[in-house]
Amino acid sequence: MAASHSVRKDAGKQAVQLQFKPFLFASLVAHAVTGAAQEPEKTTPDTQVLVTGRLTDTAARRDFVAGKIIIGRERIEDSGVRTVEELLKREPAVTVSGDGRIGLLNMPGYTQVLVDGQAPMAGQRPSQLDVVHIEKIEIIKSSVAEYGPFGIAGTINIVTRKSVRKTSTQLSTGLSSNAGKPGASLSLSHNQSTEGSPLRFSANLSASQATSLSDSRVRQTLTVPVQGEQEQSQAVLRTVSRNPNVASSANVTWQRGPDEAISLSPYFFAAQGPSEGAESRRWSDGTTSSVQQESKGSLTMFSLPFKWIFKPSKKSQLELSARTHLSRMDSSSARVDATSAQAGTLRNSSQQSDGRTNNIELAYRVNLEGGHDLKAGTSYGRSTSDVDYDYRINGQPDVALAALGTNRRSLSKHVQLYLQDEWRISEGWALNAGVSGQESTIDVAESLYRGQTSFRMWSPSLHVSKKIGDDDKRQLRLSLAQSFKAPQVDNYTLRPEINPLAPCAASGVCGANTIDTADKSGNLGLSPERALGLNLSYEHGLGDDSQITLEVFARQIAGKIGTDIALDTVPWSTSPRYVSRPANLGTARTAGIDLEMELALRDLSKIAPKITLRGSAGLATSRVSSLPGPDNRLDKQTPWTAKLGVSYAMPTTPLKFDVDADWSPSAWVRTSLSERIAMPRSFAFDASANWAIDKDKRVVMSFKTQSPRTQQQINEYITHDEVVRQYADTRKYTTLSVRFDTKL
Fold it and tell me: What is the predicted pLDDT for the residue at 49?
């Protein structure tokens, strides 16, 4: 008899539920069009626009009520970096956690990252995009309606490059070395436009290959009453991975007239990930074990976004967007486990995943009388995933994992609406008020196990800004918003990830494990996190390119998602096993203060050297109600962060230097009732030299390192009568690179 699990969660029970009725959006658009019809003037083909100045990214930031930070194309090209991650790490508003993850407000994992206003494609890592594909990056440290109900710490929106009215070609080639392992990169960008033609075209290509090396030494101890802490084992782990990849993007735009345009923006990405790993372990009783593993992986993605833009009037615009995305991921591994008492056991695993996502969105924008900029939109998305598994032990099927079948199918659907009004009340006051909502359903089928979960999210937001003085360079901002963090499909799958230190036997029987070797599985009862947020900031502009910002923030997060480790009866084992699952832990509260600075010395004095200082310093505290203190912080959050960067352009030589440093302290974090993690302190240092050979050519040399060179992380597992600790010392390596850029 088939087992069936059905779970329905309502993330908005504590708030007003959003009702999705089609006539609501239709009435809104009809009202907006009626208002727009009062403006009969149209743009004609003979209209000319005269640009008399340049609005810097810093100056443009001041014009957004919610405080949108913009990293434009000119700044991207001037930076000399290759990836989005490298670019964001220089931004004062972006914090870097101890494990290198980027985010906002020192809240790792709570920043929404979008690509062209939509969730990234399955398998896509936006932070690793080559900047050749990027037009600009937008950063908002709160939730706004047009970006949906997510983004508890804020949103980073990566806008891809589009074709423009010029013809140009750029080429970049580079070489790198990490731990003595070579790497290479190449990017090519071409934009084609013919005067008088309604068509324009752009194409971008990037390719890279790098080898990464991971060296770790792990020492495990056991602490029991009376006996104290005693060593259990020591291990040496080493993994070498190669990561070749290629990406291509294009944009074809047909300007049908002054008020209408149609564009296609195909994107293709392919990557491979071969790696070899070795592990040797010695136990305190003299027993030894060894592991040899070879893995192969590949990812292929194709996306075809379509957009139609129509301007019913000079002050209104209608956009229809559609996107189809296809992906395939293949992975396989061969692992040989051997001990001093037993011959090697060969474990083969393979996984093939096919995904498809279709999304359609309709958005409308209109400028109404009285300073209102009204935006409204709706979208519908549908994603399917079909995963096939194959696990074998010494060539025979792994009967333990066969209990969940050899296939997992999932279906995700969502409907989203938003309405936003940015109102210029007066010269000094402005307001951004909006509401967004989403209804989502996720179905997962694994052999005899089937589950469904659905939830509704309702997210109102309010942002107020007050300009101080007559120069528009000083202002106060206040933001209030309710936002969410939704679980992913993988959080709901029951199929376990068997801990390699407690594998199933060759006979197919999975015996008992220990708390430090827990398996990983999903949780059908998981609910989204819901947060109430407050941001208050003061921005003091010192010039077109200089600004100091002081910001305080607070978040109250209900249904905080963490991990729960428990001893369970599971279908893949004849004995109860410890299993780690995502779980809603309770309420979390966090608050902090940030000071950010971007200072061009020439904004203070025209005779000053061409030096720009950038940096930030922040304090943060947090508590999770269901976990005991004093280390019950948000996962990966540190008590403070700091970063400092300097850019210097030499006056007589075409050389520009950039130096960036980032600090984070060590800190203990309790991730569950049974586990604590001690994160190591970290100091990251990047330096680069940019030599402009002429106006079309340059050479960029860079150096990246971390301190301490060996970083220690401690994982502590706690039961009622014992404590297991794992001390992992991981070696960090220096990266050197050189790149040549030219305009053809």
Answer: 34
Is residue 43 over pLDDT 90? Answer: no
Half-sphere exposure of 230 (CA within 13 A, CB side): 10
SS3 letters across 151-202: CCCEEEEEEECCCCCCCEEEEEEEEEEECCEEEEEEEEEEEEECCCCCEEEE
Runs of H (alpha helix) within 296-455: none
3-class secondary-structure state, position 457? strand
Least confident of 9-13, 272-276, 604-608, 645-649: 9-13
Percentage of the residues of the chain whose pLDDT score is greater than 90? 62
C-alpha to C-alpha distance for 465 and 427, rounded to whole angstroms: 11
Q: Is the pLDDT reported for residue 325 higher than 70?
A: yes
- The larger pLDDT score, comparing residue 341 to residue 374, is at 374
The closest of 156, 112, 137, 120 to 325, measured between CA atoms, is 120
End-to-end CA distance of the chain: 68
> Would you state the pLDDT for residue 508?
65
Instruction: Report, in angstroms and rounded to the nearest whole number, the Rg of the chain calculated over CA atoms.
Output: 27
Residue 204 confidence (pLDDT) = 95
> Which pLDDT score is estimated for 55?
54
Residue in this structure with the two tokens 């960067």, named with its chain if needed:
645
CATH number of the domain at 3-39+52-743, please? Answer: 2.40.170.20
Instruction: Look at residue 58 in the predicted model and tell me its pLDDT.
Output: 64
- Which residue reads 């950063």 in tokens? 139
Residue 2 confidence (pLDDT) above 80: no
Q: What's the confidence (pLDDT) of residue 379?
A: 96
Is residue 285 classed exposed, middle or buried when 0-12, 13-18 and 19+ CB atoms within 10 A define those classes?
Answer: exposed
* Alpha carbon distance 361, 348 (integer Å): 43
Euclidean distance between CA atoms 476 and 550, whole angstroms: 10
Looking at residue 402, its pLDDT comes to 73
| Pairing mode of beta strands 111-115, 154-160 | parallel
Tell me the one-letter amino acid at 636: K
pLDDT on residue 470: 79
Bridge partners of 413, per DSSP, are 382, 441
CA-nearest of 378, 487, 505 to 436 is 378
d(CA 488, CA 560) in angstroms, rounded, equals: 14
- Mean pLDDT, range 591-604, rounded to an integer: 93
Say how many C-beta atoms besides its own lie within 10 A of residue 222's C-beta: 19
Instruction: Please say if the pLDDT value at position 517 is more than 80.
Output: yes
Is the per-residue pLDDT at 35 higher than 50?
Answer: no
User: What are the residues whose beta carbons fall under 8 Å from the beta carbon of 710, sequence distance 6 or more?
Assistant: 729, 730, 731, 732
Rounded Cα distance between 82 and 72, Å, is 15
Over residues 514-542, the mean pLDDT reads 92
Which among 685, 715, 690 has a CA at the least distance from the CA of 700?
690
The CA distance from 97 to 707, in Å, is 14
Strand spans (E) along 228-273: 228-242, 245-257, 260-264, 267-272
DSSP character for 82?
A: S
Q: What is the overall mean pLDDT for the chain?
A: 87
Q: Region 650-662: what's the mean pLDDT? A: 93
Residue of 574, 564, 578, 618 lying closest to 596 (CA atoms): 618
Q: What are the residues whose beta carbons fall under 8 Å from the beta carbon of 486, sequence distance 6 or more?
A: 150, 440, 455, 457, 528
Closest CA to 671 of 585, 730, 555: 585
Inter-residue contact 634 to 579 (CB < 8 Å): no
**Cα–Cα distance measured from residue 698 to residue 384, given in angstroms and rounded to the nearest whole number:** 45
Task: Decide the pairing of beta strands 372-393 and 407-424.
Answer: antiparallel
SS3 state of residue 492: helix
* Residue 603 scores a pLDDT above 50: yes
Q: Which two tokens stand for residue 38?
A: 């009062």
Q: Which residues contact 616 (CB under 8 A, 6 or more apart)?
A: 92, 93, 95, 594, 595, 596, 597, 641, 642, 643
Nearest Cα residue to 292 out of 242, 240, 334, 341: 334
